[in-house]
């Protein structure tokens, strides 16, 4: 009989399966390079997953390393009933849940001292340890959801508002919502990941969706990139010019100003105007804003210049939320050590 040849697409698929199987065999035999070859395509997306669960870049990095170590040690138990990617997400999710339940989080820096009298806030909130996520770390993360059940676009699901709202959910609801609505895993896969039933997953998802709908601002659609850049540039120009009226004039009527981890939040033109006038721009103060991006949004390293020094000192990181042609929220993260994650210096000439 003559030789039989597989169609090119089938042949390519079979070659890929054989290649992955060969790498898996070598990794199970203790080949570290083979293991890295297996997991490297998923490293960035697993870190983003841990960040959504924990709200901290440092915690996400720590849990990613724990996940990969656990995968390395447990590779012999990977039976191939699911994809390697699903198996890795199972490990990462449960590691994050264990950390959340145990309160096993990194030691937080002391809450910054408030050196001036602040106006009465609109809201006293719990201290938030949410950190901004550098867009540079999103390189290599898939743009499309892996399943049909995903509800959120990638940009929406990494936004500051979304990740902040996620932190208000109980750990298991948080996991179910991310796995189902962000990543698009099937209910059966989520049930296996969490060691529970599909009915339990469905119930937790319903509660999580209801809670998130309350915590998230009303959807206004994602701004197009060009408009977002233009609005952010005008905001930075007004801020560097110390023009409080212009800054406030760019805000939506219900805009928020937040300063994690400080528990004070300001909403509306009057409240934000008063805070900027009496605190941010008090005396002879000026700022320089260096553009970057965080959580898929415009962001700026903030540097303060005053009468005592010609050098600009790090003054937190600003993340701007654009809605249409206005700013609906700007968040100043007061922890100056965050700037290094964005490749920004602590001082400017």
UniProtKB/TrEMBL annotation:
Record domain SnoaL-like: where: 233-329
UniProt xrefs under InterPro entries: NTF2-like_dom_sf (IPR032710), RNA_pol_sigma-70-like (IPR039425), RNA_pol_sigma-70_dom (IPR014284), RNA_pol_sigma-G_actinobac (IPR014305), RNA_pol_sigma70_ECF_CS (IPR000838), RNA_pol_sigma70_r2 (IPR007627), RNA_pol_sigma70_r4_t2 (IPR013249), RNA_pol_sigma_r2 (IPR013325)
Database matches in Pfam families: Sigma70_r2, Sigma70_r4_2, SnoaL_2
Span of domain RNA polymerase sigma factor 70 region 4 type: 161-212
The RNA polymerase sigma-70 region domain, residue ranges: 38-105
PROSITE patterns in alphabetical order: SIGMA70_ECF (PS01063)
GO MF: DNA binding; sigma factor activity
Protein name (Swiss-Prot/TrEMBL): RNA polymerase sigma factor
Native source organism of the sequence: Phytohabitans houttuyneae
Gene label: rpoE_4
